[in-house]
Amino acid sequence: MRLPRSGGRSGRGRTGRTDGLETGAPRIGRSVLRVAGVLGLVYVLLAGSLTYWQVVQADALTLNPANPLIQAAQETTLPGEILDSRGTVLAKSVRLSNGSQLRQYLTDPSLGPLLGYRSAMYGTAGLEAAEDGVLVGLAGQSESDLLLRKLRFRPYQPEDVVLGIDERLQAETERLMAGRRGAVVAIDPSTGQILALVSSPGFDPNAIANPATATASFTRLSSDAASPLLDRATQGLFVPGSVFKLVTSIAALGSGTITPQTTYPDQPAEEKTGFLVDGYRVIDGHHPFTGNIALNYTQALEVSCNIYFAHVGLALGGGRLVQWAERLGFGAPIPFDLPTATSQVTSGGGPLPGGFKDQVELANAAYGQAQVLVTPLQMALVASAIANGGVLMQPRLVIATRDQNGTTHPIGPSQWRNVVDPATASTIANAMEQAVSSAWGAPFAGLGKVPGVPTAGKTGTAQLGGSGEPHSWFVGFAPVKGAKIAVAVLLERAGSGATEAAPLASKVMADYLSLQQAAGS
Amino acid sequence: MTAAAARNARSGVARFAIRPALRRREFGLLAIVAATLVVGHASLASTEAGRLTLGDVHLLGAYLGALLVVHLAFVVTGRRMDQVLLPVVAMLGGVSLLVMERLPQDLVVQRFGGHSFGLADLQFGWLVLSLVLLGVLAILVRSDNWLRLYKYTWAAAGIALLLAVFVFGRDVNGAQLNLCLGPVCGQPSELVKVILVVFMAGYLADTRELLARSSTRVGPVRLPPIPYLIPMGAMLGIALGVVAFQHDLGSALLYFLVFLFLLYIATARLTYVVLGLLVFLAGSGILYELYPVVRLRVDIWLNPWADPQGAGYQTLRALYAFGSGGILGTGLGAGLPSAGGAPAIPVIQSDFVFAAIGEELGLIGALAILACYLVIAERGLRIAATAQDDFRALLAAGLTLVVVVQAAIIVGGNLRVVPLTGITLPFVSYGGSSLVANALVVGLLLALSDRGVEPPPPPRPRGRAFRSAGERIR
Fold first, then answer.
1. Parallel, antiparallel, or unpaired for β A123-124 and A391-393?
2. Which of A122, B69, B108, B397 gives 20 to 30 Å between its CA and that of B386?
3. Which position has the higher pLDDT, A38 or A27?
4. Each residue of B328-349: pLDDT tens digit?
């Protein structure tokens, strides 16, 4: 190794003969000061990230369902109850003589997918998991509460959770759904309050909560081909078929692409030959009685004309269709008390605006086929927005919490989105009413009518390709003016919307309205 | 040896002329510490009992008693030392005692002659032993020659210790850390950090001028004088190699950072820091490729949510603890010590003790703990800046850095600022080796701060700085 300088250096040092401080070796004091500065910065950084976790992220961390604190809090305190809107206890915890605790549920299999379960062996799921922080008393405390918490001997303040569900409606809906696969979502359009949320088949949460039956039940339920543990209403994604025409309607009328008077002159002829889009034929033919009449918007919705809506979709363009659907909640998980699957208009990735693959996909999507996939909750929201004059309220399962002093703290209602102008909403609502009541519409959606009440509705019969029955859908609300309930009914592979989903929806709406009437009188 | 004998005789004389001197500031600060700890203990006992009570104050009382004894010993011997360090260390140790009393006692159990001792008992024993060691060092060390003159011997001893662990060591959590003598086990890497600082201070004091001023030319590039770095680099390399091989990544990181800081303090050349960081990056890259452990730690650091029940478990649990602590904390005893029979955070008593503090004492309490380390930094670096010669300055700075940087490494690991490396939080984590080693550090710092301590030897003739043999002859 070459050391060109060291020799000369040491030579000079020998003649220099002074100590380090005077020969110009850097002063230690100064570099110590700099190091002190660096250490100071490092500690400021640490203090900053401490503050981030303990202040900014504190609530998110504390209420994370995976947080063991929730489990532990539950060991010392009994979690709060879950009540329906009328105060019926849906779930409560009891302390057993051996010191352990047991969650007890009202016996109603539809409560399984909705409430989930709270089990010593399998943890929590569903609403029990989502509201765990509140139920065991970790949530909703202000800093002053937290200060007081330090001074209390019992640190946790479990709260009860009040749902917008009417258990009578929920149970009746469950009875109607018994033996079928599907989901029903009922919502109050003016408040966003969920009135019933049923996924079928369901399960009795007691079976998992009770340690004696937990393992056997859980094994059976998780291996069941009908997936009873899945909440179809919020997590299931289904082809919507014609009920999606409501979304296309909102987009087309809302954006001014069509007016209620818009007709497509070629449409009557295409009913017989099919509507040729890029070599693909959109076929229809289920309403021969309209003959040579070029249908306007209302008539097209009444008879659920696929060709009309394929034209509308092409006129609208994929970009706008996707954009308007997103206003309704498509394209992202809906902010809700339970985790939700993301509804989609297209799988995306295609070259056309909105991500459509080609014009064929767009034309088919416009009447609810192709790659359109929706959750029943999403379709209930579509009905709800139309029923509420174009304003979409924030959907809420939990309408209030009740603390240990018995004080109720309401949550909402709040507006979520302003989707479309009231006139457009009213136009679509009228068309939906015609679909249920008019001579042309009745063969399709007539069974969806609530006797004696003006009812708006739209059926869907979602073709799934291959053999087998289509999904049967009905989306609607009643009464048409000042709607009290909007519903989305899905019956998996049950057949046509007109004969299966529509009558069921009618019963659910009628039940609720009569319950309301009974309460009012 | 005649000079040394004369010096010993001088300090012997000094020992006869003891003039007690009050240490009012230290006493006042200790009183505040004692009051804080008593309140903390009462809060813990009340939470656990469910009613207002002072609880069992035996351990805390004895701890405070030991503090008083050390303080009085300083007063009686008339030592004119720093008056802040002892109270700060006392505070950290006291918080440690409270936390250990609060955690499940069966986290660590040892049996001595038919009696079994739990977490708090053992930590109390180590704390008292550490205080005694700290006091004895602070009072009795009157000369630094025993450190200054034998730096290579110390370094050799340190490496020997590490190698002994390597050969005879026992595994702790996948890392080979412990060396056992009969029933007592210890982590030599804690002691080695002190030894390394002594060596580096001695070496840099001798060579800093050369290191600061001269360079090695490689073609047109001016590099630091590599030959002068070789002995120290070799020593550090061996130490790093051994601890890295033992998967003791925290210690490796600590040694390296302290080395870089000291090198900068000695030379004021940023080139060293930049080069050092480059070496560090390269080394980390190699370790990342070579060791699955390192890869795992980095992956967890980047995304602990990837495997919440497996690899990310500890880190996430710590974050939950910080989150539930919030600004004010749950209060001692009201947090989450265990979930389902197991500790909520694995090794909460040592690597994750800061998370326990964050939960129960909140942001306020955790910030106060961080502030304690900053106070140690301020006092220690002040001692360094006002030291009488280079060796003492570098030694004081190195000792301070060892504590403060170590705290930053583990706190940063807890907070997901840097990847987690298992290392103790000085004076707070459970563990005898850590407490004893850090007491050694503070004891030496106190001794160095004593204005009555023997002045350093006169500067030696230049030019032989590099020839260590010359030192011993002198």
1. unpaired
2. B69
3. A38
4. 888 888 776 555 455 667 778 8
Q: How many domains does chain B have?
A: 1
CATH number of A241-399+413-520: 3.40.710.10
Q: What is the mean pLDDT of residues A382-396?
A: 97
Interface contact B210-A9, CB threshold 8 A: yes
Is residue B76 assigned to a domain?
no
Strand pairing category for B216-218 and B221-223: antiparallel
Q: Per the domain annotation, does B111 fall within a domain?
A: no
Which residues in chain A are contacts of B341 at CB distance < 8 A? Answer: none
Please give the single-letter amino acid code of residue B140.
Answer: L
Query: Closest partner residue to A54 among B336, B358, B416, by Cβ?
Result: B358
The answer to the question of residue B40 being in a domain is no
Tens of pLDDT, residue by residue over B129-179, are 999 999 999 999 888 888 888 888 888 888 888 778 777 776 665 555 677
Predicted model pTM:
0.69
Nearest CA-CA distance, residue A400 and chain B, Å: 24
pLDDT score recorded for residue B371: 97
Cross-chain residue pair B316–A26, CB shorter than 8 Å: no
Show Cβ contacts of residue A311 under 8 Å, excluding neighbours closer than 6 positions.
A264, A267, A275
* Domain around B340: 144-473
Minimum-distance CB partner of A68 among B215, B320, B385: B320
In a domain, B92, yes or no: no
List Cβ neighbours of B223 (8 Å cut-off, separation of 6 or more): B215, B216, B217
Type of residue found at B466:
F
CA B144 from centroid of its chain's CA atoms: 20
What per-residue confidence (pLDDT) applies to A15? 33
Nearest-CA distance from B412 to chain A in Å?
A: 6
For the cut 60, the answer to whether the pLDDT of residue B70 exceeds it is yes
Name the residue among B160, B152, B198, B178 with its Cα closest to residue B402.
B198
Q: Which of B259, B273, B322, B402 to mutate to test the interface with A (most CBs of A within 10 A)?
A: B322
3-state SS, one letter per residue, for B359-380: HHHHHHHHHHHHHHHHHHHHHH
pLDDT digit string, tens, across residues A252-274: 999 999 999 999 999 999 988 88
